[in-house]
Amino acid sequence: MWTFRLFPEAASTGAREVDLLYFALIAISAFFMVVVFGPLIFFAIKYRRRSKADRTNPPHGSFALEMTWTAIPLFISFGLFTWGAMAYFDIERAPKNALRIDVVGKQWMWKLQHAEGKREIDELHVPVGQTVLLTMTSQDVIHSFYVPAFRVKQDVLPGRYTTEWFKPTRTGEYHLFCAEFCGTEHSGMIGRVVVMEPNAYEQWLTTGDVALPSVAAGQRLFTQLGCSGCHGDSSKIPAPRLEGIFGKPVPLNGGATTIADEKYIRDSILMPGAQIAAGYENLMPTFKDRITEEELMQVITYIRSLSETNTPAR
Amino acid sequence: MKLQPQSYLAEHTVRSWLLTHDHKRIGILYLLTIIVFFAIASVAAALMRIELVTPQGDLVTSETYNKLFTIHGVLMVWFFLIPSIPAVLGNFILPMMLGARDVAFPRLNLLSWYIFIAGGVLALWSLIHGGVDTGWTFYTPYSSTYSNSHVISMAAGVFVAGFSSIITGMNFMVTVHKMRAPGLRWFRLPLLVWSLYATSLIMVLATPVLAITLALMSVERVWGVGIFDPKIGGDPVLFQHLFWFYSHPAVYIMILPGMGVVSELITCFSRRRIFGYGYVAAASMAIAVLGFVVWGHHMFVAGQSVYSGMMFSILSYMVSIPSAIKVFNWTATLHKGSISFATPMLYALGFIGLFTIGGLTGLFLAALAVDVHVTDTYFVVAHFHYIMVGGMVMAFMGGLHYWWPKITGRMYPEFAGKLAAMITFIGFNLTFFPQFILGYLGMPRRYHAYPPEFQFFHILSTAGASILGVGYLLPFLYFLWSLKWGRVASGNPWEATGLEWQTPSPPPTHNFEKTPVVTREPYAYDAVTGKEEPQEGLMQQTSAV
User: Fold this and answer.
1) Which stretches does DSSP call E strand in B407-462?
2) Strands A132-138 and A162-166
3) DSSP-assigned letter for residue A208
4) Interface ipTM above 0.90
5) Within 13 Å of residue B361, how many CA atoms lie on the same side as its CB?
6) Contact A49/B339, CB-based, under 8 Å?
7) How many CB atoms lie within 10 A of CB A285?
8) Domain boundaries A214-306, corresponding CATH code
């Protein structure tokens, strides 16, 4: 009647690492349950009120015992911490050379944009064996992008970008859930991740809702919105050049320094006066109501591409 | 029933209850109040469990479902668990355990109940006018900008009720410092007093942060001041930091008093001194202090830095150690005891079992990489119910049975008591253990509808919840029954050593005819005879009645 499982499918490289730690935790829990419940049940039977067990000279404490049952759990805890932290580091550290996909969450759907231009809603198609890096933001409340089969979850926040990566190891269809309560239809904000053979994926990319590739779309916006008039090659207005800045430190007016990451570029577009690059005046207007979340991500992708190679296209 | 003329229950007028300064009566006022909130929140839980029998959302709408889990969370946390042991049993027992006539500030004590009622009325007002759908966590910007429900009145209710916690905490701290009977040195205090002291510390220090957080959220919602919503220049994660800075310590408000009660029960029913008194007492204080520095473990996937995640992970492992120390000491206390399995003891043993499982699954959640997968799933739901319901509610029920003869002067029916304790234990495990499996399978929490593959475990869970419901209903009925037909209790039916047992049941208004003098450590039981240890070369303690 029901598909019965005790453990979820594992369909990514990271899933095995998490499962291994999970099984270790189950083993450690089993050990402590034996250590606690064993004596508990034994004493409860042996020293029940009517038994004739020897009760003379009961101990009221033992320094050695207290130290033992402090030190052993502490020692095991440090081991678990180290293991969990190392695996967490792998989960959080986005690898290079990944397939980039932009994600925008909104009440109550996921909008996804592949770098090649393909767009989809509540579905994510990815090739097997390829590292995928999601750059995510929300246009309203907090959501969370959760794929149980990959053991990954990351909150998707309005006003900033978070990332999530995975490397699928098996083709198939897997659940995609929103894991952070986001309002009325929260439990309807679900979808599926489809892991395909690489050549099937290539073919899929060219069918259906295909728009411009992200870099080209970003470049077009860069011109349309007038960014290139000041930040472009032929500009006479004193505006910082954007080639090569992505991911690098930017000195700011007032002496501070910030890293030119996605959030800095986003904030500079929406709130240009907040953090001004050193040596420049605040001449830039805000683009706050003139650009959507998806377009912002495309512009950022374009600016990032200016720092990646000399040929800004994949 | 026939009461001694000086009994605290002797006067019957409504006025004598509503204007009482007697800590015992105030404890009972709190008990009656939280029963109402527990009942409402339980109905919400029951509706959710029935809805979840089928994968489709077919019993209630999504909007209603979201309001149900919100009302369940808000009422259970702030209007039942937090006041449960401190404000009910603590109010009743603490002054008597100290050999005092009352708490340090009896009028403030009554005020705290009225404030609690005011907060509760606001929360109910919000509920009657349509409820709130933000979850008990009130996460921004959903709560401050997007939700169309009655967020402000509910937040105001919680805000106001918080002050009753603060007053109770402060009152208890001053009482413990200033009103101990002659000879009752700090290291002669019963462990419940230590744990209530640690709890009070958290109430006084953490609750104001909750008040500030909810006030800021309301300011953003009402006046559009950008604090948490990035659209108007705020930071949504800031809310989570502030909220958990209170709410994680609040988890310890919801478990420390339970630990204290269990120390009382284990010693009395195994006729044994507590093993490692100093370590158990110090562990309460360690939990209270460490509990303030682990809030970030609720936010491992919320977008905080990897390094703060690592700090919060290691600190969370540290806070598990004092809890482990307590469990080991309770187990060692049974060694060479003379153990009887009266109802309170069954609850205490159940507490140890469920709390241990709750604590061990906490290790899973503190392990960063595993938390990424299981946070915001049913694994977390199961974990905290093991602590709060398996831990705190079991301890509360155990304590209520234990002190019932002291409170009412009547015994509850023992067989029914044991039956209820066992039904509760079985029902609880059947409700919440399947949720660990569901969580690791990937079932997110707060889902009104879900993929059909999760149905099997949801059905188990709902079946368990119906058994659990019987486990709670039964004591409610026989406690009522016992008020009229229960066997009349003596002053000390358990032959326990605490000062609260050296006065008649129910106690006189001023607790003790003559201030008791304490000459030795608590729990001076002798397991060989099953009686209290004989006092050497000492004037006999007269309980002058």
Assistant:
1) none
2) antiparallel
3) S
4) yes
5) 24
6) yes
7) 10
8) 1.10.760.10
Mean pLDDT, residues A22-27 taken together: 96
Closest to B180 in 3D by CA, of B106, B259, B284, B101: B101
Strand residues in chain A grouped as ranges (E):
99-106, 109-114, 119-121, 123-127, 132-138, 143-147, 152-156, 162-166, 172-178, 191-196, 249-251, 257-259
CA nearest to B234, candidates B300, B148, B142, B154: B142
Residues B219-244 pLDDT 10s: 999 999 999 999 888 999 999 999 99
Q: Which of residues 11-30 of A touch B (CB under 8 A)?
A: 17-18, 21-22, 25, 28-29
Q: Is the dihedral of CA A178, A181, A182, A184 positive or negative?
A: positive
At residue A314 the predicted structure's pLDDT band, cuts being 50, 70 and 90, is very low
**Structural domains of chain B, count:** 1
Q: What angle do CA A12, A13, A17 make, to 5 degrees?
A: 110
CB contact set of B39 (below 8 Å; sequence gap of 6+): none
Rounded Cα gap, residues B280 and B473, in angstroms: 33
Helix (H) or strand (E) segment spanning residue B532 = strand B531-532
Q: What is the pTM of this model?
A: 0.94
Domains in chain A: boundaries: 1-32+76-211, 214-306
User: What does residue A311 show for φ and ψ, rounded to 5 degrees?
Assistant: -100, 100
Q: Give per-residue pLDDT as tens, B256-278.
A: 999 999 999 999 999 999 999 99
- Say if residues B148 and A151 touch (Cβ distance below 8 Å): no
The residue segments making up the domain with residue B471 are: 25-541
**Contact criterion met (CB < 8 Å) for B440 and A8:** yes
* B335 Cβ under 8 Å from any chain A Cβ: yes
Length of chain B: 545
> Taking CA B357 as the corner, what is the angle to CA B351 and CA B363, rounded to the nearest 5 degrees?
135
Query: Could you report the per-residue pLDDT of A80-101, keeping only the tens digit for each?
Result: 999 999 999 988 888 888 999 9
**Where does the pLDDT of residue B542 fall: very low under 50, low under 70, confident under 90, or very high at 90 and above?**
very low
Task: Find, in chain A, the residue whose alpha carbon is nearest to that of B322.
Answer: A70
Give the pair of three-digit tokens for residue A37. 């419940």
Question: B376 vs chain A: nearest CA distance in angstroms?
Answer: 6
Superfamily for the A1-32+76-211 domain:
Cupredoxins -  blue copper proteins (2.60.40.420)
Phi-psi region of B276 (alpha: psi -120 to 50; beta: other; left: phi over 0): left
Which of B321, B337, B377 has the CB atom closest to A70's CB atom?
Answer: B321
pLDDT digits (tens, 9 = 90+) for B333-353: 999 999 999 999 999 999 999
Q: What is the pLDDT of residues A220-276, one digit of tens each?
A: 999 999 888 888 877 778 888 888 889 899 999 888 999 999 999 999 999 888 888
Task: Report CA B459 to chain centroid distance, whole Å.
Answer: 28
- The answer for B409, left when phi > 0, alpha when psi is -120 to 50, beta otherwise, is left
Q: Kindly report the CATH number assigned to the domain that includes residue B494.
A: 1.20.210.10
Q: How far is A312 from A114, CA to CA, in rounded Å?
A: 16
> Distance (Å, rounded) from C-alpha B420 to C-alpha A116?
63
Nearest to A47 among B233, B235, B336 (CB): B336
Q: Any bridge partners for residue A259, and if so which?
A: A249
Residue A190 gets the label, from left (phi > 0), alpha (psi -120 to 50) or beta, of beta
- Determine if residue B135 is left, alpha or beta; phi over 0 gives left, psi from -120 to 50 gives alpha, anything else beta: left
For residue A182, give every residue at least 6 positions away whose Cβ sits within 8 Å of its Cβ, in sequence order, or none.
Answer: A105, A107, A108, A140, A141, A142, A143, A189, B142
Closest CA to A15 of A134, A149, A155, A177: A149
B353 CB neighbours in chain A (<8 A) are: 37, 40
What does the DSSP assignment read for B46-65?
HHHHHHTTSSS--SS-HHHH
